[in-house]
Amino acid sequence: MILDIITSGLINGSVYALLAIGFSLIFGAARIVNLAHTAFYMVASYCIYYATHKLGVHPFLAMLVAILLVTLIGLICYKLFIDPIREHEAAVLIATIAVAMAMQEIMLLIFTGDFLSVPSLAKGYLNILGVKIAYQQLLTFGAALLILAGVWAVLMKTRLGLAVRSTAQDREVANLMGMNESRVAMVTMGISVGLAAFAGAVVVPLSVVNPHMWMHPLIMMMAVVVLGGLGSLKGSFVGAYILGLAESLVVFLIPMGAFLKGSVALSIMILVLLIRPEGLFGVAFEEER
Amino acid sequence: MGMFGFYVRKLYTVFKAEVLVLPSRVVVFLFFLVLLLLPVVTQDPYLLRILILASIFAILAASWDLLSGFTGQLNFGHALFFGVGAYSSALLNLHVHIPPWGSIPSGALAAVLAGLIIGIPCLRLKGTYLALTTLAFPIILMGVVFAIPNITGGELGVSGLDRLSGSRLTDYYVTVVLMLGLCTIMWKITDSNTGIIFHAIREDEVAVRTAGINTTRYKLLAFSLSGFFAGISGGLYAHFMRIAGPSTLEVSMSFTVVIWAIFGGIVTIYGPVGAVFILFPLLEFFRFWPEFRMLMFALVILLILLYMPNGLLPWVRDKIEKECPRCKIRNVATRKTCRVCTASLD
Fold it and tell me: Which residue in B has a C-alpha nearest to residue A107's C-alpha?
């Protein structure tokens, strides 16, 4: 029981961490609240489903192709719909909602609303203290941690990462220092969508694929981002595991818990915000004028 | 008879001087006229139903604008007010047997209470934090609704409510007159001193506080006012559909409100109302191609935003009217000189 809670909590937490870090990155570097973020995650899942079931490609290859393809779709959407209106924050907001809705409808048209599933990469399971832990779960967890470490390395150790972080701190000054602000935004959008696609790829063997699968992760991702502090990667990471574990605790321990899992996680977020309005690791921003 | 003729002539002069001078005022006048006189021409129940629902949602979208457009307190959880209004008037009607004219205002008061409850913690948050936090409240409430199905009906909702009134036609007049009245009140609020303070809070809260204005009180006022109007629309919706279900609390409900308001143009009140009356019938029209309905809706929004990022109605208004550079009074775009101060308009 306890082990069940921990495994499902850790896996949910890793997926939320992947999503939240991508969301946080693009918010930091370009001040875009990308509500279509988890829609890309859904599209990636469908790409993998299509490649494995209809084209008969090996799942691993399918994942790679899906991540690349979705990143490309993300960049096209950004160039077409978001970049021209970036100065109008409110317009960007509903443009991203509209993109998400359009993607949901396209997937609904192509694949119908059926619940689909994708074969797992690794069969079999590990038996720890009488609890079955599938290899796929371990793989998902490991891959998520690996990619998070990779993102951290890119952000902290490379010149590109420096550009992203400095743009996040102050766009105008970063521009004056010779960083091409719009190109940084574009690259960040690519990384961000890539992370969403990767999250979709690692989680797809463990969950069902359907066109509405982006709603719940979207809400949880936003809760994670707010809980951890906007723009703080460490905060997103810690917040994701807190909410992931809280969610699985509720599901396993409380009767009717499946209905309440979102409520409890979000209540935790609000409680934390009441004590620390800037989130766990957020810096209290000076008011932007 | 002489007195009557005098008033008619005076009314005509005022009408000519105040309404006919600006095309936007003519449009608003025609909007009132068409909505009020439409049943004389046709009483098609389907058309009336669309317009009733559009009126209900117009109140909702305008109330979002009152809170988020004017004070800049971006609220992503507006469905909370709508849902609380719908559920409370439904429960009051079903269990306490209060007729609609009593249960809808009570539902609105419950929504005001909800506005205060979420307003107080949200006072400490700003901008995106606030937006993402408010998104959480309707979802929390929805979880509660699902968890206690014997009171709230769970997934099925509370059904079997009293009708709004006897017939479709009276329903139509009740909602339309309420919509026109409430939206005028909201517009008047935003035009008053309170509205100016709301607007100032959006522009620069610190400066407003420096001017000796208690911004906390005004923000709470905005939350409760918005909650009141949204609660009324929720109650109307519950009584018109005769069911209050969890769909009133869904995330997509909150998002739709934001879409309407921003599409029509925020900080205007008339923008969201106009947007609902354009988008809602458009969505019904797309019902001819049911599979493509939402897709086309999304594409229309994306395309319009690309060209009019400030919203549709302000864009149209700027095309047909010009602001005098000297006295800031609006003029018809065809005029060469200002109608008040005769300054050149170009």
Answer: B295
Does A253 touch chain B if contact means CB atoms closer than 8 Å? Answer: no
> Which chain A residues are Cβ-neighbours of B124 within 8 angstroms?
273-274, 277
Q: Could you tell me the two tokens for B334?
A: 């065809």
Whole-angstrom distance, CA of residue A66 vs CA of residue A118: 13
Instruction: Measure in Å the smallest separation between the Cα of B128 and chain A Cα atoms.
Output: 8
The CATH code for residues B45-308 is: 1.10.3470
Domain limits, chain B: 1-32, 45-308, 311-346
Q: Which chain B positions have a beta carbon within 8 Å of A109's beta carbon?
A: 291-292, 295
Residue-wise pLDDT tens digits, A228-271: 887 778 888 899 999 999 888 888 887 776 777 778 888 888 88
Is B238 in contact with B161 (CB distance < 8 Å)? yes
The pTM of this model reads: 0.88
Asked if A98 is an interface residue toward chain B (Cβ–Cβ < 8 A), one would say yes
Tell me which amino acid residue A199 is.
A
Q: What is the ipTM of this complex?
A: 0.81
- From the CB of residue B45, how many other CB atoms can be counted at a distance below 10 Å? 13
Nearest-neighbour CA in chain B from A60: distance (Å): 31
Q: Do A105 and B310 touch (CB under 8 A)?
A: no
Q: How far apart are CA B61 and CA B55, in angstroms?
A: 10
B332 to chain A, any CB pair closer than 8 A? The answer is no
Rg (CA), chain A: 19
Q: Which of B121, B143, B291 sits opposite A259 (nearest CB)?
A: B143
**DSSP reduced 3-state for A211:** coil
- What type of residue is A173? V
Nearest by CB to A106, from B147, B295, B306: name it. B295
Reported as a single tens digit per residue, the pLDDT across B198-228 is 999 988 888 999 999 999 899 999 999 999 9
Q: Check CB contact of B144 with chain A, cutoff 8 Å.
A: yes
In chain A, what are the domain boundaries? 2-213
Q: Which of B132, B205, B301 sits opposite A226 (nearest CB)?
A: B132
Q: Tell how many helices (H) and how many strands (E) occur in chain B.
A: 17, 4
* Residues in contact with B240: Cβ distance below 8 Å, sequence separation at least 6, in sequence order: B52, B53, B56, B164, B171, B175
For the record, the structure tokens of B315 come out as 């864009």
Q: Which of B148, B305, B310 to mutate to test the interface with A (most CBs of A within 10 A)?
A: B305
Q: Which residue pairs, CB below 8 angstroms and at least 24 apart, start in A149-157?
A: A151/A21, A151/A191, A151/A195, A151/A233, A152/A233, A154/A191, A155/A233
**DSSP for B39-85, written as a single string:** HHH---HHHHHHHHHHHHHHHHHHHHIIIIIHH----S-THHHHHHH
